[in-house]
Design brief:
By secondary structure, the protein is an alpha/beta fold. It contains 14 helices and seven strands. Bound molecules: guanosine-5'-diphosphate and magnesium ion (MG). The site of guanosine-5'-diphosphate has 15 residues, from helix 4 and helix 5. Keywords: Chaperone, GTP-binding, Hydrolase, Nucleotide-binding.
């Protein structure tokens, strides 16, 4: 039996190894994905994003426990660019989520972001696909929502939950427009703190301005993740969003857009590699760059020359 067979037989060790292969962009990973892909598309993928310290891990922990009570199996992918650890362990997350690891049906993987900025969203999507093929019912992707790469990561999710907290700098303008657009559900966590009401009304106003007449009005839920307050309501909101996605055809639309983007990104990467290899082999790369340095040629012209030669 090989790793895919073992994994599909339910081996958690094989699952962990398969994920490592994807993470390390192992040569065999593509062959593995070919066999796993037909088994994907069943899991519900939930993105949890927001500023550091907002309570995303605590919230994910509580949501996972709640869903376990409904008999669902869970995978958690924690992506944190602030993690200083190579290979990806986020110490805080590991410790806090340790309790969950005791539950056989919850699989947690922390992913480092070092040295893989561009490919990170694709890797995260692939790790989610592996968990999906393994048979996890619900997959959480926790990511620090600060920049474009995090927004890209969250695109792998069916439902995106944006977690905010009162008092993170008084100014709601600090909340980037990008994060308002990706939120299907907004959570004001640490609602036990002062300023939750004000954040709520400010957020309501921004969402009204932002949404025009969308079929789905992103709800705002208040939670205290550390005590579990509001988790039930959040689970209900996620359920409603899934129902909306299915009924409206939006799930299908999102997933086909995702498939298209995945394919485009993969092709861009491999065409790029192919061209760089060719030009390196020809030994003319350096001289072309030198001609740019001398301002004899501009980068557009050079790129065009290379492309037309390669595509002949
Ligand atoms: N007061 C309060 N603290 C919370 C709440 N939720 C999480 N915390 C605490 O906030 C800190 C950061 O939480 P964590 O889940 O690691 O945040 P993350 O960085 O977004 O994943 C931890 O010390 C949590 O115990 C909450 O609702 N209220
Ligand atoms: Mg966290």
């Amino acid at each position: 039996m090989d790793i895919v067979d073992e994994m599909l037989n339910g081996s958690k060790r094989a699952l962990a190894r398969a994920i490592t292969m994807v993470e390390n962009e192992c040569h065999d990973a593509a062959g593995m994905m070919r066999r796993l892909y037909p088994r994907t598309g069943r899991a519900q993928v939930i993105g949890i994003t927001g500023p550091p310290g907002a309570g995303k891990s605590t919230l994910t922990d509580k949501l996972a426990k709640r869903l376990r009570q409904q008999g669902k199996t869970i995978g958690i992918i924690a992506v944190d660019p602030t993690s200083p650890f190579s290979g990806g362990a986020i110490l805080g997350d590991r410790i806090r989520m340790n309790e969950l690891i005791l539950d056989e049906e919850i699989f947690i993987r922390s992913m480092g972001t070092r040295g893989s900025l561009g490919g990170l969203s694709r890797k995260t999507a692939d790790v989610a696909a592996v968990l999906d093929a393994f048979g996890k019912d619900v997959i959480f992707i926790e990511t620090v929502g600060v920049g474009q790469s995090e927004v890209d990561i969250v695109k792998a999710a069916d439902t995106t939950v944006v977690v905010l907290v009162p008092g993170l700098g008084d100014d709601i303008q600090a909340i980037k427009a990008g994060i308002l657009e990706i939120g299907d559900i907004f959570v004001i966590n640490k609602a036990d703190r002062e300023g939750a009401e004000r954040l709520n009304s400010e957020l309501e106003m921004m969402l009204v301005l932002n949404q025009g007449n969308l079929a789905w009005q992103p709800p705002i839920k208040k939670t205290v993740a550390s005590s579990g307050n509001g988790i039930e309501e959040l689970v209900d909101a996620i359920d409603s969003h899934v129902k909306y996605l299915t009924k409206s055809g939006e799930l299908h639309r999102r997933r086909s857009l995702r498939a298209k983007n995945e394919l485009l990104a993969l092709m861009e990467a491999s065409v790029g590699r192919y061209i760089v290899n060719r030009i390196n082999q020809s030994g003319r790369f350096e001289s072309m760059i030198a001609s740019m340095e001398r301002r004899e040629k501009d980068p557009y012209t050079v790129a065009n020359i290379i492309l037309s030669e390669c595509l002949k």
